[in-house]
Amino acid sequence: MASRKQASCRGIGMEFEKAVKYVLEKGEKLGAEQIEVCALRGKVTFLFVEKNRVNTAAEVISGISVRAVANKNWGFSYTLDFSEDALDQTIKSAISAAKAKGEDKYFESLPEPMKAEPLEKKIDERIIDYTPAQMIEFYDRVKRVLDEKKITVFFGMTASMYFNSIIANSLGLEHYDDVAGFGSMFYAGYVREIPPALGFAYKFVANLDEIIPEELGREVVKEVERAKGSKSIKYEGKTTIILEPTAVSNLMWIFVKEILADSVDRGATPFTRDRIGEKVASNILSIYDNVRSPKNPFASERDWEGVPTRRTAVIEKGELKSFLVDYYYARKWRIEPTGNAVKGGQGPLDYISRPPSPGSFFLEVRGEREEPLDSIIADVKEGFLVREVMGVHMSDFSSGKFSVPAFGWYIKGGEVKYPVRNLMFSGTMPQLLKNTYAVSKEKKVEAGIIGEFPYIAVRDILVSASPPALKEKLGLSILNLLIKLGVVKSPLA
């Protein structure tokens, strides 16, 4: 591990590994009862596209975060400066934070060393060395496919990411890791109709051979083409919906918040600890968190506290089996940790600037019986195929209630008829899980909540849709006609 691309950290006073050793040795001398250090460095190369304006950027980050135990609690601090003075100040700040928090009667210790099952993985060195010029070439190849179909890119992002980390503590735990991933997504539309037909495609891989720009472009084209000619209809009532993988991933954001140990401990969830072993979902439904999945570019033997990872069954055949638990809550509840301490957030710096907390790594939704999507659709007398939902962050996580706008297609007599805009569907997460009656064989890796998701069919979901006012409808019809005749240019072009 230590030999892989470990060029010394530029412009800092100490080498990466020496800085870790320094913190471990100095921590207790400065007053910490226990000390944990997470050192991370990485390289991220980005390409952003907005309305055909292209920008590239490359960012190299390195830093150290510290958790220090004092007064039966832990405190956190971090630094991007590896000088001895900066590291000393970081340790002192973490100790002060621990003392300021006051005693926590449930806190016992930082994680002790535990044996982890070995995980075979290979880093694609091409991802580490990917340049902004290569990013632009990748985008140009995608754009050529879209240009042929007169499709405009509204937003796009491509990123190559490499992170090298060390997690160690004064109890003897030590873990070296490196991960690399490459992701790309484009959101585009056909602007010769108003509202425009929109579509997007996304892919995230650990091997560059698995992502071809032209294939990604064709996926965007396919999504835009199937969204053309969307209608606004009047609809109100409970019906069947089939959630596409993107929509499942979006909604799983609610579910994940409800199964995190900190939410469960506060009672801010419909899935409380006393419901372990209870049927909370359809018998055909299973949900796992599996950081070790070969489809996860950031697969790891250990979490961000150094605790061994595993495939955790959260729901299995409808039965609530477990929650996503870090070391603190495992000790508090007197159970085994699931290896679900995560770090991160909106950007690479968050892996340094935030302490570990309970989270999901890579969700897997599975069916006891899995069917081809075509046969699931063929069994629907009336309903909707839902591609995406918006505004999930506005949901009530403590109850699982949601009411979200969506885009999809109307299904009648087992056939997908036409795309529908201005959809809204409402329900609760427990209801959605219990009313799931079919799971597809087809699956996709998605990034709302990162994981691999199928299509799922759900009964008795409240759906509403309403057409625009007559004046608005007439105005859109006239504008579309003028655009098609070439009299006016699309305002979105």
Kindly describe this structure.
This protein is an alpha+beta fold. It has two domains: 16-227, PmbA/TldD superfamily (PmbA/TldD fold, 2-Layer Sandwich); 235-465, no CATH class. The protein is built from twelve helices and 19 strands. The strands form three sheets. A six-stranded antiparallel β-sheet has the order 3-2-1-4-5-6. It has a five-stranded mixed beta barrel with strand order 7-15-16-17-19. Strand 9 (311-316) and strand 10 (319-320) form a beta hairpin. The model is unreliable at 1-13, 469-485 and 487-492 (pLDDT under 50).
* Inertia-based shape: globular
| Fraction in beta strands | 35-45%
Number of separate domains: 2
N-C termini distance: 50 Å
Structural class: alpha+beta
Average pLDDT works out at 90
* Main beta sheet: 6 strands, antiparallel
Q: How many separate helices?
A: 12
Question: Rg from C-alpha positions?
Answer: 25 Å
Unreliable parts: 1-13, 469-485, 487-492
Q: How much helix, percentage-wise, in residues?
A: 25-40%
Main sheet strand line-up: 3-2-1-4-5-6
